[in-house]
Please model this.
Amino acid sequence: MRKQNRKPSDLICLVCGAPAIGFNFAVITCMCCKAFFRRNALFGLQAYQCRYSTENCSIDIRTRRDCSYCRLKKCFSVGMKKELILTEEIKQLKRERILANRNLTHLNSNFNQPTDIFIDLRNIFNAYEEYCRAPIQTYEKRGYELTVHQPIKSRIKFQNYLHACQFYSVSLENFFKHIPEFQQFPSNEQSLLLTHNIRFLMRMNTIETMNDSAPLWAPINFLLEIMYGKSLMETIDVCLHQFKICLNEPQCTQLLLIILLFSTSITYNGNLNTVNLYKIQEKYTDILWIYLVRRYGSLLACQKFSSMIRQCLHLQNIGHKLELKRQNTQWQSFMIETINEFK
Model:
């Protein structure tokens, strides 16, 4: 008699007993416990406390939300492996890179003749991967490995935030240094452009590098909520996720970063030749537009382009609110107290 295979609906989650969807992190679990483990496992049990101080709460489909400590403890006890989380993220990153390269190849094949645009896109993509995305991911992984066994409070350090900002800024700068038009400016003018635009560019770059399951910066996000307010930080988070959905592809983000690098505003006090800046912006805006048209067609390209502009303005408005916070004298006094508290 042929042995029948068990259907997915017959599987039971080993953590809470709910209907399971299959193997997740080496154990049969439901979708809810899979998501819970992904969000919390890298913090470790030391980051939580039992809600009822027993460290032995019953975990089932009804009580699984009651105590994160005991639920995570049970995840580990049934054999779920946190090491597989990073492995899956790396696999996903590789899939995204393969898809991006296929998109570029498909785009190039749609042109009637060889063009410099395809070469520009390929060079931009490779430079960003090597000098910006890869260093940031390595930095965050190393930071996690260094701090994972520390209590959460010891990770909430203002110095960590400043060091992260500096690293992200340098990573972006290294990417921009491989853009031919940026190389043509003398070092003092390069510094002017970066100084004028870097804060907004770092927020924009988060769209491409953000990782919802990265545990290292959760304490820093908590610190930012203390500094700027939870409501404003939630607004930023929603905006960045909407922007990511709008862009949908790394090529769009990378081209926008370059376009915005050569931006000025009414507050700009530098002595750069704005006509040259506009010509560079025009070039990369044309590349972005051609990419969108070849990829999606004229109608959908118009919709996506309009959406990008709208999201940029929204993100700039949020940046203005952050700047007003920084300029507030009461906020500055509060910042000093906050820094001293977490030293």
